């Protein structure tokens, strides 16, 4: 490893590679860095929350975007924001929530940058209602491989290639995003238990239309008649009038006094080094049993803070350390409506092999957005996080990939670290269009990553 390279890994910490970090502080520095990044190219990187190797570049450059973090303009009446790509969703919540605006789509962490949210075309628990992040992006400025800065608008091929394009069409510098209005920084939440996977799917199918947000935590260690048992959580932004109901929220007086306050809790980080094997069938089984049993059979209208509803793990810095040095493999796939039996088979198989995942969530997707490599399609999405050292994990996931591809589904590239390239075309029908545009836009491969090399993107 040379003196100017450092190990760079995804949030899963499974396969670090050595790269040369370049921290960008101005657009001029960005142009110079792209023009002079060398034969191994470079890839933009935000806060490093992609689980796999999307923001790694072995032997090349990694462009650190986090210093490009200015909020340039806010339309407080219309809810549009012009900001740098390195601004985090956390920062935008701090700035916009007190003004009555909330991000239109948020993934399971608010510590992602706007550039990363566009590059991965992130989705949230409101996909059937709001689509992916790109649906709310009006335009962005893109620094391309020739060193030119282009304004890219919706409805153009370059927009559709970049949203979900994992940073491979260029470096996003700024973006204009439309936010959604809210009256409080609280959520009105309904919670219920589902006895098995079929019961859960019925509840999601018949009840989701009444909610903006919907997600289910699944116990993937439950077997037999309890296979796929779950806790289903659904909700919407609480209106001001909800704060008048006593007893629904601890500290209700304070909330009524400052209904748009954003004060997420912060807990101590786990130690840098934890014993290997902390996440195992015994510990996860105990957690799953407690989590399922403590959930109410049915409860409606409970007020919950935005941070607790959307980002419960963000309160614990570096929570990924609990998986030990081996790290975790995050696996998320989607299969379409009509492929419910594929979902059932996969859940039964994961449960039957006793795979310990306390981060297993099922949600429904609505209409797809036009991004050529955007992940969501109408159907069912299951995400799970597993210890990377789990015996038999690699062949199991390879076989699940085959089953997902055969069902017309796909794997999420922002979380992937091990998909075989021969399955990619079956999962992403616009792959050839993406490759052709990228070859025309960037013939020398200036923008490249470990992910792009592994999957020949």
Helix and strand arrangement:
Elements: E1 6-8, E2 17-23, H1 27-35, E3 42-45, E4 61-64, E5 71-75, E6 80-84, H2 89-96, E7 101-102, H3 114-119, H4 127-130, E8 137-143, E9 149-153, H5 157-162, E10 171-178, E11 180-181, E12 186-194, H6 197-207, E13 213-218, E14 230-237, H7 252-257, H8 281-294, E15 298-305, H9 306-310, E16 328-336, H10 340-352, E17 361-365, E18 379-387, H11 393-406, E19 410-411, H12 424-427, H13 431-441, H14 450-454
Parallel strand pairs: 2-4, 3-4
Antiparallel strand pairs: 1-2, 5-6, 6-10, 7-11, 8-9, 8-10, 12-14, 12-15, 13-14, 13-17, 16-18, 16-19, 17-18
In the predicted model, the low-confidence regions spanning at least 5 consecutive residues are: none
**Overall morphology:** globular
- Roughly what percent helix? 25-40%
- Separation of termini? 26 Å
Mean pLDDT: 94
Put the structure in a nutshell.
The protein has 457 residues and is an alpha+beta fold. It has helices at residues 27-35, 89-96, 114-119, 127-130, 157-162, 197-207, 252-257, 281-294, 306-310, 340-352, 393-406, 424-427, 431-441, 450-454, and strands at residues 6-8, 17-23, 42-45, 61-64, 71-75, 80-84, 101-102, 137-143, 149-153, 171-178, 180-181, 186-194, 213-218, 230-237, 298-305, 328-336, 361-365, 379-387, 410-411.
């Amino acid at each position: 490893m040379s003196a100017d390279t450092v190990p760079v890994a995804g949030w899963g910490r499974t396969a670090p590679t050595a790269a040369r970090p370049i921290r960008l502080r101005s657009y001029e520095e960005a142009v110079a860095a792209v023009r002079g990044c060398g034969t191994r190219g470079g890839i933009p990187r935000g806060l490093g929350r992609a689980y796999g190797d999307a923001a790694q570049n072995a032997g090349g450059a990694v462009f650190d975007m986090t210093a490009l973090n200015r909020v340039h303009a806010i339309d407080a009446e219309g809810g549009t924001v012009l900001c740098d790509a390195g601004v985090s969703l956390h920062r935008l919540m701090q700035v916009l929530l007190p003004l009555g605006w909330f991000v239109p789509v948020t993934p399971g962490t608010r510590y992602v940058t706007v550039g990363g949210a566009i590059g991965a075309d992130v989705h949230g628990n409101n996909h059937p209602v709001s689509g992916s992040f790109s649906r709310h992006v009006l335009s962005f400025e893109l620094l391309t491989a020739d060193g030119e800065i282009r304004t890219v608008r919706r409805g153009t091929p370059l927009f559709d290639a970049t949203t979900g394009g994992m940073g491979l069409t260029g470096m996003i510098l700024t973006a204009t995003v439309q936010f959604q209005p809210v009256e409080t920084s609280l959520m009105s939440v309904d919670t219920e238990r589902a006895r098995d996977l079929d019961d859960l799917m019925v509840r999601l199918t018949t009840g989701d239309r009444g909610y903006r947000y919907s997600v289910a935590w699944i116990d993937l260690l439950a077997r037999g008649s309890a296979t796929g048992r779950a806790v289903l959580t659904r909700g919407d932004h609480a209106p001001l009038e909800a704060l008048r109901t006593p007893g629904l929220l601890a500290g209700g007086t304070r909330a009524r006094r400052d209904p748009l306050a954003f004060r997420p809790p912060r807990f101590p980080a786990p130690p840098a080094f934890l014993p290997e094997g902390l996440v195992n069938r015994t510990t996860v089984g105990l957690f799953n049993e407690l989590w399922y049993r403590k959930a109410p059979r049915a409860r409606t209208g409970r007020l919950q803070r935005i941070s607790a509803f959307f980002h419960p793990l963000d309160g614990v810095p570096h929570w990924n350390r609990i998986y030990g040095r081996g790290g975790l493999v995050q696996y998320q796939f989607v299969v379409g409506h009509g492929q419910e039996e594929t979902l059932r088979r996969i859940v039964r198989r994961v449960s039957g092999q006793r795979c310990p995942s306390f981060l297993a969530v099922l949600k429904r997707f609505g209409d797809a957005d036009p991004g050529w490599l955007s992940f969501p399609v109408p159907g069912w999405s299951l995400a799970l996080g597993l210890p990377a050292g789990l015996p038999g994990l690699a062949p199991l996931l390879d076989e699940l990939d085959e089953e997902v591809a055969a069902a017309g589904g796909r794997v999420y590239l922002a979380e992937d670290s091990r998909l075989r390239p021969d399955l990619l075309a079956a999962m992403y029908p616009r792959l050839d269009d993406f490759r052709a545009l990228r070859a025309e836009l960037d013939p020398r491969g200036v923008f490249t990553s470990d992910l792009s090399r592994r999957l020949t993107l």
